[in-house]
Amino acid sequence: MATVNFLVKGKDNPATIYLRFRHGRNHDYTKSTNKLINPKDWHPKKKMPYLRDEQLKNLSTALSDLGNDIIKAYNNESADNIDGNWIQKQIDIFNKVHKISNKSDLVIECINDVINTAGTRENAFKERGLSKSRINSYKNLLKIFKTFQEWKRRKYRIKEIDLHLSEDFLNWMLDNEQYSLGHAKKKIDDLKTVCLNAEANGILANPQLKSIKGGKVDNNYIIYLSPEELDKIKLTKILNEALKNVRKWLLLGCNIGQRGGDLLNLTEKNFTNKNGLELIELKQQKTGKRVAIPVLPTTKEILKEGLPYKIAIQKFNSQLKILCELAEINMPTEGAKPVMLDKEGKIIEKDENGKYNESGIKRKITRTFPKYELITSHVCRRSFATNQYGILPTPLIMQITAHSTEKMLLQYIGKTSYDYAQQIADFYANQMKQQNEEK
């Protein structure tokens, strides 16, 4: 059994308090706690300060907490990792905690701290302020973790977030709350970020924190609109002006390959002319990358009467489904979409007025649906990349979509190494055909 004791060496005032950690014959380490005391205030038998005043009482409490935290950390750590450096690290972590006394180590309070200071935090672009979507993601974590604590009937502290608890939280989200695996893993990532932020502020985190993994789930359902389907949408007779506007945004989006948020924020200011070349220039919201897209004849045809009028992305997504249903884009397609579920996990259907007759929980599920039900704004970027692959040079597609590597692009459009090999084979076959025709 591991033990922690404290000792004071010598009679000089002030004297350093040392921590001694022992477990079996192989682990016996003595390290400075960086705490000082008058030797006259040290109880040699109890190996703790005399409780003569408030300051000594606080010191005694701090030493007890330090000893307890090291034992807990040791119980969660592999024996192969325990050495003098590991003991010193635990002491350093603990001392940072007590440098900030006004910070709560409750998980809920630490999530709130991230949300409340979002405007001053550094984002992925090394700029000031988290994006609205990131803030909403933390607010969603706050709501979910509160429900988890209520289910567990207890409140958790940052140092309790270890591999076991993160796995418990993940399984609860999947089994009890019926969240998708992708969403549940994202919440694990968000929780880990909150804990790392708390640790940076001097709050003690669990030694297993860095081993906790959330991660992304591979998207096996590539939803895009083929050239034939886009032509079908283009030729569909529509009387509703709002749907005509949505169709214009959709066709433009599939032609320039940008995410919904970047697409719907386009204005005349994004259109420039450089050395006679007409371009659409923008800075992508998600990546921060600047892209320049040539205005092709097909783009000019779509915009011959000007840009479509502004529309919120939520409205765009809902009306896209109506538009595609009218165009009979209804092939049975496997994919994921949000639905309302009852307590037994069955889908609650809307009535003839488009309302739910009973309450439930909104969750994303994977099943086979008519294709139009799976269409969202993201179909624009994916349709462009998929339809142009093998036509435009791959580096040019990447320049427009802002994918960093060819591997990322191929994963995005659902292509494999076999598809890439086939593209190369087709290229050389065409080259040979041209050479034979010239002879």
At the fold tier of CATH, the topology name of the largest domain is hpI Integrase, Chain A
Going by helix content, strand content and strand pairing, the class is: alpha+beta
Task: Give the CA-CA distance, first to last residue.
Answer: 87 Å
Determine the mean pLDDT.
88
Instruction: Report the β-strand fraction as a percent range.
Output: 15-25%
Instruction: Indicate how many domains the architecture comprises.
Output: 3
**Helix fraction?**
40-55%
Strand order of the largest sheet: 1-2-3
Number of helices: 15
Which runs of at least 5 residues are low in confidence (pLDDT < 50)?
none
As a whole number of angstroms, the C-alpha radius of gyration is 30 Å
For the biggest sheet, the summary is: 3 strands, antiparallel
* Oligomeric assembly: single chain
Write the layout of secondary structure elements.
Elements: E1 3-8, E2 15-23, E3 27-37, E4 42-43, E5 48-49, H1 54-75, H2 84-97, H3 107-116, H4 132-152, H5 163-175, H6 181-200, H7 227-235, H8 241-256, H9 260-264, E6 271-274, E7 277-283, E8 290-294, H10 297-302, H11 313-326, E9 332-341, E10 361-370, H12 379-388, H13 394-401, H14 406-412, H15 417-438
Antiparallel strand pairs: 1-2, 2-3, 4-5, 6-7, 7-8, 9-10
Helix pairs in contact: 1-2, 3-4, 3-6, 5-6, 8-11, 8-12
